[in-house]
Design a protein that fits this description.
Number of strands: 0
Distance between the termini: 36 Å
Shape: globular
Strand content: under 5%
Number of helices: 17
Radius of gyration: 21 Å
CATH class: Mainly Alpha
């Protein structure tokens, strides 16, 4: 009797400790995702001084802004499969180190080629974070807690972007007098986050990883690409990220061309990020299993309306368009990730690979968005054509939402 009884307490303690520590893990991955957002968004509010200092065209600057999504396309699926095999703790630390390195290298770039390469390095480390975060949620959380955790972790990237947009021209540029020093500071913040993760993160619970390798071996790329939900989510990922990156990277310039100062444009460009951070805390949590499809449709419609609204409104209308745009684009990724997690053919066992596919498709749009916006501006002298294209794309994908298959309420 003493044997089983003696074992019962430590097992119970271990389970209780895991239940508590999962929220610590959520906080740590939130910090990594915030560093991701900070370094990713760093160049956007600094476009004008970078263009002037490095003597770039807008097409070249658009290519630089889209450099990391271009690399991301080739790395994301591989990063997902590595995560499934290497484990979260080591893989996420490596990814965070690479992100920090990208931020610091940008500060050292002296021409178009070096800046392009410095930004492109982000595309090697970025997928590990953006794929690893939802995998962590799938492993450590269940039921309603999973929806809550998916809502919370996504705010990291959003608020990291807010910090870059709000502090670059209003705080760091006046303090340092240099866009290079500003980008270096963002890289150092990301480096500190990487080492904090290494110090405090734990491997996931044993019971959550049992059987993962065997399940993953039965799947693979071909298997996942035959799943209808995966196909639809990949198309929606492209739409979500082509809109997100296309607008976010050029929004400070768009607002400046509307009459704002660089500091004002930075503040207002951060408004969608703040709205998104608030919205993403609630919207995925409100969409219980069985009700995610109408929520996805609503977010695509809101993205279409608000994107065009940036072009045709001013004053209060522009404010509403900015806030709605931020809410819709921030909520789409966690909603689509929840759909993937709850697709029986995917689940936690293959969430790394499926998440990698998601961001591969998404970052094709992530590269195309900034590049096309810059190219179309150089060709037409206006952002109108690019904005109308992005709005129409969201309407087109809205028509595909009835085909999404959902798990019944109460499952998973």
């Amino acid at each position: 009797m003493s044997g089983p009884a003696a074992r019962a307490v430590p097992l119970g303690d271990e389970r209780a400790g895991q239940d508590t520590y999962r929220w610590v893990m959520l906080g740590l991955v939130w910090l990594l995702y915030a560093s991701f957002g900070l370094v990713r968004s760093g160049p956007a509010p600094l476009v004008e001084p970078i263009v002037q200092d490095l003597r770039l065209t807008y097409t070249q600057m658009g290519t630089i802004l889209g450099a990391w999504p271009l690399v991301y396309i080739g790395v994301a699926y591989l990063a997902g499969t590595i995560l499934d095999r290497m484990g979260l703790r080591r893989a996420l630390f490596l990814g965070a180190l690479i992100i920090a390195g990208s931020g610091i290298l940008r500060a050292l770039a002296g021409d178009f080629t070096l800046m392009f390469l410095a930004v492109a390095v982000f595309g090697i480390g970025g997928p590990t974070i953006s794929v690893g975060a939802p995998k962590l949620i799938a492993i450590w959380f269940r039921g309603r807690d999973r929806s809550a955790a998916a809502s919370i972790y996504t705010t990291g990237s959003v608020l990291g972007g807010v910090a870059a947009l709000a502090t670059a021209n209003a705080v760091l540029m006046p303090a340092t007098g240099s866009w290079r020093a500003t980008l270096a500071i963002y890289g150092l913040v990301a480096l500190a986050g990487a080492f904090l993760w290494l110090l405090l993160a734990r491997d996931p619970p044993r019971q959550a990883t049992t059987g993962r390798a065997g399940a993953a071996e039965k799947g693979g790329l071909r298997y996942l690409l035959r799943v209808r939900n995966v196909q639809l989510v990949l198309l929606m990922a492209f739409t979500a990220l082509v809109t997100n990156h296309g607008i976010t990277n050029w929004l400070p310039v768009l607002l400046q061309r509307g009459g704002m100062t660089p500091a004002e444009a930075g503040y207002w460009a951060s408004a969608p990020q703040i709205a998104g951070a608030i919205g993403v805390l609630f919207l995925p949590r409100l969409s219980a299993p069985g009700s995610r499809r109408p929520m996805v449709a609503g977010m695509l419609l809101a993205a279409a309306v608000s994107t065009v609204g940036l072009l045709v409104t001013s004053g209060l209308g522009l404010t509403i368009a900015l806030l709605l745009h931020g809410i819709s684009r921030a909520a789409l990724t966690p909603l689509l990730m929840l759909v993937l997690m709850e697709t029986p053919e995917v689940g936690p066992a293959q969430m790394g690979a499926a998440g990698g596919l998601y961001f591969t498709a998404g970052e094709i749009g992530g590269f195309a968005g900034p590049f096309l916006m810059g190219l179309l501006f150089d060709l037409t002298g206006t952002f109108a054509v690019g904005i109308l294209f992005l709005g129409a794309l969201n309407v087109a994908l809205l028509l595909g939402t009835p085909l999404l298959r959902e798990q019944p309420s109460g499952s998973g």
